[in-house]
Specification:
alpha+beta; eight-stranded antiparallel barrel; five-stranded mixed sheet
Amino acid sequence: MRFARLRYAALLAGLLALVAAGCTSPAPDDSPAPDASPDEGVTAAPVEDEDGLLPSPNAPDDEPPTTTTTTLVQAAVAAGQLDEPTGLMYRVWGQFNDPRLPREYRGESASHDSAALNQAVRELDTLPAEVAEAVGPYLLRPTDPQSAFSHSPDGAGDSQNDGDNQDGEDSDAEAGAEGAEARGWQQAALTWTQVNAPENNDPAGRQCPGDWETRASDQVPIRVWICADRGAGTVGAEEALEAVIGIVDGTVPEMTKPVPEGMGPPKPDRPADDPHPDSDDKVDIYLLDAGWLGPERRGEVSRIDSGAGGLAIPTRPAGRTASSGYVLIDAGVLEDHGTGPDSELARVVVHEVFHVLQFAHHDHLDERWLIEGTATWAERYYLPGDFGDEHLRHLHRMQREDDSLVAETHPDKPYATALWAMFMEQTAGAQSIFNTWQDLSGTGGAHEDVLAAINAYVPVETRFPDFVMRMVNANPAGNPIGTRFVHLDPNFPDDVLPPMPDHDLGDDALTIDHTGVPGLGYEYHIVYPEGSREETAGVRVTVELQDEGTPKMEAIVRDERGRYSRRTVSLTPDGSEFCVAGILMLIVSNSHTDPGAALSGEATVERIHDLHCDPPAGELLLEMEGQYDDPPTATPVTIHAEVHWNGALQVHLEQTEDGGAPAPLPPIPGFDEDDLRPPSLDDGVTRYSGAGSLWSVHGSFRSERCSPYLGCEDHVVEQRFEGQATLGGMWGETEDGGYLTAEVDDSGMQLHGRLPVTVTTVIHHPRRETTTHTEVEHWPLTCHTGRPFHHVTAGHDIYFPPDRGTTLTGHLNDEDHAVIDVECSQTWQPTTAGSSGTTTFTVNGILIVDD
């Protein structure tokens, strides 16, 4: 049974068209999808998707445009057809719909080439005079009469048409500089030549003909500007200024909190850079009339879409690696898409201001994926609204990516790496992003510097396989993925899986080539062993990969009950053996941080007929929900606490040959081991090892200490619970220490175990720096009974899993004595006078013991 791409359109024919997001995020390609056809050697027959782990239809194939202005110019420079300064000039022109750009370099619409502008700012004093004069006016503040964006009384910045060039002949740099005095770029006059562009692309219609109105925020150091004379049919200047200031005041105070609570403040501006009498040291946001910010356009239209609505430009004062900056925003975004906190304008403002805050740490990183990915992440982090469409577009791009995480293989790719930023937030909190940018200050900004900064908070080589697994984005029975993106944002499009080649597995071995998977790259494959999905088949996977990269292979394995588990494939010559019922997904990742360190080799998948595939014992689902509130009069402080977590324990039991002894327990500070061990059962007990059982957990705890002086949000503890582990049969048998055992007699079963949980604790204190630490705890497998779920340590309220609960027991089913029903359901209220709240803990499941 199998699933192939021929079924994609039939299954989700009703998918809504993807919606563009800001420059901020580029607009999606609207080209029609090619006819679907199965890959060579890939099966095409359908299979029922009963379990939710079959590939989802992906967005239409939209190969990276090869005709953007940037790629066309870079190719010409590489071929020696253009020198580098002229290439830089053309790339800058491509950002602003400059009609002097020759026809052959007018590429398709794409995201802004911010690297070209940053390079022009840094190298302006060393560029040839004619190139500096041609790009310089774009690097002046729009309020400067000499800038490209203003109409000055003396003619500098004016637009004029050159009739000699209306026949379609290409212009060159000399045409742009003709008539301009060689007075240095700060005094350069821009002479326009209308070439190969429609009449409505005349920049004269976009320049501000008079003064600029301005308004400064009274909460943060930001000033907003707009041309006073905007013309008919546009939003009035005062209304526009008020809209942007409202967005700024509602978001930027949070954004500029000191690291690690935010990105820290921007670097102050230098008033002397702007001749306007109202200029100051605040960061400036300029609202330009529609048509200026045309990223790499052909010139067919002068108005841009919201997908390229803003641009941040570094500026003086600048240090070795950091600078101030200002923002250009197309006012058409304001006029076409509303002005509220969930508007496109708000997303553009947050995205571009985040870039300016990045400049305060480092203004010329080589890694555009981190620059745009974290700025795109900031939109969702700081703004309300439904980001589901943007998430879906980013997910499609990342799931089908066959190159490195850090490679810019498509104009959308740097923005789509917002998923990596979401992964960082889920793994180590938003503070990990802010800290990463702070740690980049003073570095060279190379790839190695960026990875070193991230590694301090999210170890890339060890956590990258988890990121790759998270992009499977599935929620089948058994919860093999564990934490998913939807746990961070409920609007994330859950259950949208990657497209992947699928393969039939019969009597002949199957070979899957993994050559070429780059550093920080990945692949997904799905294998269908022949036979009924209600019966298991033995499958062996062996992997031969060279040492160039850092490979890891994982499997998601379906059992005969439709449950899925996450397993690691051994890279030793013996490989790994699995009992598979119908579906085996293979996930290959290369955690090497050098994109050039590609894998070389293949995996072999084959049927084995001598593998004993007993059914697993079953699955237990654990859940805790709790809330606690002190009375408002509690002294010295009022406490609010809440906890939410759920776990899944896929139990595999094998009888021990010698009857076994109770498994040794881990040491628990403050408790005597004899108090923790359940009493031994009488003779006639059969003991089982739970080695190989799979445990996963996801959840959170939060507490607030409220006072009439500090409020309730200044002293907060947040904890995240995550876990994915294969348990041993005794303490210390596995690296993480988790274990599970069972004892069965005529009355039923007792289960004993310790379940490893990675707990990340973030403590916010009103008078101290925020602290974050991560450790592995071992929660007892008990039926919790009435104990508070939190306690005070070092002056903070943290989650406390009760260590003295009742032994978890199972009872023989009256109808089938091979079936044991496990059920624990406890609900209790606080015992403290005046406090309120309810805590509920449940465990439910059915276990099958194979005698």
